[in-house]
């Protein structure tokens, strides 16, 4: 019988505008999510990469996944990761590439300095190959001046296809793509074709170090760019255009490089340079916060925050020619991809915190939360079109809603004028609001249409006490359901200090966040059907090591991605938008070809894997090896001759049982999908507008899924019968 575990689930339903909370000890949302089951991939169906998976002892991986080692063995005795926030870790959209960082130079990389080394790994027909992205450097200049990036050349941004990059350096770059360290410059930005060709200077007019010495405020940082890197926005206190004014202290100008020229962005509606500090979006790069769509997809519109501006801090610069000020705006949160709408907030005495949408073309506003309606509202996340906006508040906001528990924070969803309650959280360790909005906490993920919101919370969630532990939750806006992805029914096993994270790394990963402030990992797939996280809590029987392991949540169950057996942690790094490729970091030697215990990047790829040497992967040695192998070896001894009975089960009978279990599991999932489809249809009939359309699409999707699962169950049952006849 397959091992099963149940989870704590918490559901909220909005009925006729009033909130109804259902809190039970048993899974309330089981009709939608079901109970999680530790199963092999694809419910027993044969995988095209079955031999590779068997050789890797990775048959427990879901979706016919297999391991692929992305980073090379020859790493120059160094770990793969970056120890500073600006380190790059970014997967390509097709999952066939990854940009990652290292604290040391790989063999063949010519470069000095202590900043992270960046590499681009590309999948080939035989494995992964890595090339250095940093321009080579062989010496150090005598006078570095204000070398905030050193003479080494740091890769600070890459395009989604990983074909283009932005490099920050205090050196010049020659026609051969090499740094020229004897040229004493302040920080410059270059764009390059990866790896290291067709360099283009993005900051012409930058001062040399002697000029900077007379001015205490020369810091130049990229704050954002369009996806193709054709429009790059950066900040510095230096006057780089004729209409700019040099600034001192912490004041900055905001510039844009596009079409071969630098333009001053931080100007008012009269074309005059704005005073004080000006940053892209609300906080810009310096506070390590991603300003969602602060640059429109085509680069024509740039939203920025002028801290000292009167009448409203938030402005939008259009086509480099016109500036519109958003009246009485206090801070920017997000915009849609076209730059036609911007979500911002107003705050002040008698106002509280008002959330509003500014329509740029008509210069009109829509209230999300009006003035005086919310004393402590804080934006959390939004869909790309701003039709769904999540925020938190410390008070009940719905008509007829009971007051929140003492010390609780409410999580809410605004959807096209309709307000909905998601959850209440009583944070036991720190402020839940600060916990969510601080990007370095690595606890928030959302898909583009906002239908799936993943977050981490500790303490008490919807009245259920987590005993001070942090768990990962998923909210489905289409079905109005909340589920705990990392909870178990039994007593918690992990140390309370070992929090669950959606992404990032700590402990043996030298405090690295595994990301760049300009890129947020795909913790939630585009369709919302897959969510990735890592936790020290064992969620399946396979996980026995008591370490951090990477999981995928899909089809209502948590499934293991890392081994669950290694004595080393594993941490989620990034995924492609569909979740077909899952990149994670670990010291574990998951493949026979891995010959060291330095941190490497692995990919658990659907249908992936390469041929490996015919030997066992030595994940540990000697007395330090305390874990069982990833899968039990084949039976080698016959049953006792003195025992009168059926003896040990044969390989054929085991296969038949496996097929029967797979058929039963598929049938159970089909029934859950059918119930989910009925629920979505019912909600669609009660809803209107875009919400009704989304629910109708969800119902059709679930019906198709139920049919596929029923077909799979019938197929597996038929194969099980044939298997039994053959064994007999």
Short synopsis of the structure:
The chain is an alpha+beta fold. A hairpin with a 7-residue loop joins strand 21 and strand 22 (314-318). The radius of gyration is 27 Å and the shape is globular.
Plain-language structure description:
The chain is an alpha+beta fold. Among the domains are: 1-38 and 48-69 and 377-613, no CATH class; 652-728. The strands form 10 sheets. Strands 2, 3, 28, 29, 30, 31, 32, 33, 34 and 35 form a 10-stranded antiparallel beta sheet that branches. A hairpin with a 7-residue loop joins strand 21 and strand 22. Helix 5 packs antiparallel against helix 6 (689-727). The radius of gyration is 27 Å and the shape is globular. The model is unreliable at 1-44, 82-86, 141-149, 283-289, 505-515 and 617-649 (pLDDT under 50).
Write the layout of secondary structure elements.
Layout (H helix, E strand, L loop, with lengths): L3 E2 L3 E7 L2 E5 L7 H4 L2 E2 L12 H7 L8 E5 L20 E2 L5 E6 L14 E7 L4 E5 L21 E5 L5 E6 L2 E2 L5 E2 L7 E6 L3 E5 L7 H5 L7 E5 L6 E5 L16 E6 L2 E4 L13 E3 L20 E6 L7 E5 L3 E4 L5 E5 L5 E8 L3 E8 L4 E6 L8 E5 L5 E6 L15 E7 L2 E9 L5 H6 L6 E3 L5 E10 L2 E13 L4 E4 L46 E5 L13 E6 L2 E4 L9 E6 L5 E6 L13 E7 L44 H36 L2 H39 L1
Antiparallel strand pairs: 1-4, 2-3, 2-35, 5-41, 6-7, 7-8, 8-9, 10-11, 11-14, 12-13, 14-15, 16-17, 17-18, 18-19, 20-21, 21-22, 22-23, 24-25, 25-26, 26-27, 28-29, 29-30, 30-31, 31-33, 32-33, 33-34, 34-35, 36-37, 37-38, 39-40, 40-41
